[in-house]
Amino acid sequence: MSTGAEGRLAALGLTLPPPPQPFGSYVEAVRIGAMVYFSGMLPAVGHDLPVLGRVGAELTTEQGHDAARMAVLSALAAAKAFLGSLDKVTRVAKLGVYIATVGDFREHPRVADGASDVLRAVFGDELLSGRVVLGVASLPLGVPVELELLLEAAD
Amino acid sequence: MSTGAEGRLAALGLTLPPPPQPFGSYVEAVRIGAMVYFSGMLPAVGHDLPVLGRVGAELTTEQGHDAARMAVLSALAAAKAFLGSLDKVTRVAKLGVYIATVGDFREHPRVADGASDVLRAVFGDELLSGRVVLGVASLPLGVPVELELLLEAAD
Amino acid sequence: MSTGAEGRLAALGLTLPPPPQPFGSYVEAVRIGAMVYFSGMLPAVGHDLPVLGRVGAELTTEQGHDAARMAVLSALAAAKAFLGSLDKVTRVAKLGVYIATVGDFREHPRVADGASDVLRAVFGDELLSGRVVLGVASLPLGVPVELELLLEAAD
Description:
The structure is a homotrimer. Chain A has helices at residues 5-11, 61-83, 108-123, and strands spanning 29-32, 35-38, 89-100, 130-136, 145-153. By secondary structure, chain A is an alpha+beta fold. In chain A, helix 2 (61-83) runs parallel beside helix 3 (108-123).
């Protein structure tokens, strides 16, 4: 059995959604040398956004966690579409987790783990990413979580 | 007629404002190898900030769009001042669009297009950027939009 | 007397806190080539978070400034732990300063200078960073300031 990212993804039984499409004058990924910069990834399935609202207000922390998990699967779909295979990923440089919240929310790490735990399961402990987590006022189209992913990848 | 960025800028009739100056202990741009990291760009003309407020509260979506357009012209002025010519830009890696909003605002893509559409017109479809858009609680000095630009550029 | 970053740090009489530990499935720093991407740095001393609240609401601008100073010392501790010595830093590419605020706060530059002024004192004017400052709705665990640091460093 493969021990690469694609093998782990299959072993975990995770299904990727269709890769996301831009909502404006931009592209989903830009490669410069070994680095691949991804646009903000939303908890979307195609153009459907099944979960809207702010974590700590309309949504619970667990719903935020699940939205982060949905968004990271969308990010993996974008990465697979761009690179051809997730096995080309050699490092996750940065995971940005931006959570729509209200001012007294404090459980950001639990929400962010919804994305980080999937990355750890798929890419393994050796490729563990850095992480920047912010509680923002609002996100595009009313989604609760947006992710920013910066990968290093082989040609 | 030139088909480079400077030629397109002239053909569009766009005038760049004076390049922005730092408001503290930092510089407007840092080059590392082929990458140029720019500091946050505000909708400023010199030290004048003609538009203040939050989009969806004191300002409309269209005013936010126009502020994003003003900020990207400031970013282009910074890039031209730093590189000597916009023709040296070989790729726009990332455009971050940070919009001061209130919690129920959802029209972030329309605001962000105020910046993205100018980048597309000046740099062309081949250099289209990735994009990360957030609705934040407040921005420096009360401006409605701040941009983060990461470019790849020739020496 | 050394004129490097370690010598300046000692001459300034600054004491670094213990390097921060991750709050989830991520690491504090990722090196790719010459670049080192750090995870979000909080105003923490070990696992203790001495200052909580939002700047402009529960906290004053000066308390925010001091929290930014505390966070940058934590970031320097992380950099020293990762690199072995701060003398290996060849450039500060980016400093992100994310401040938990309410909507009418405008004194972001003063808060951010709490971090930038330490970087300038330690690394010198030649290594001055770019800077991106945002007022966010909330931050992990209720802290008032989070920093994002991107360094270029020698092997």
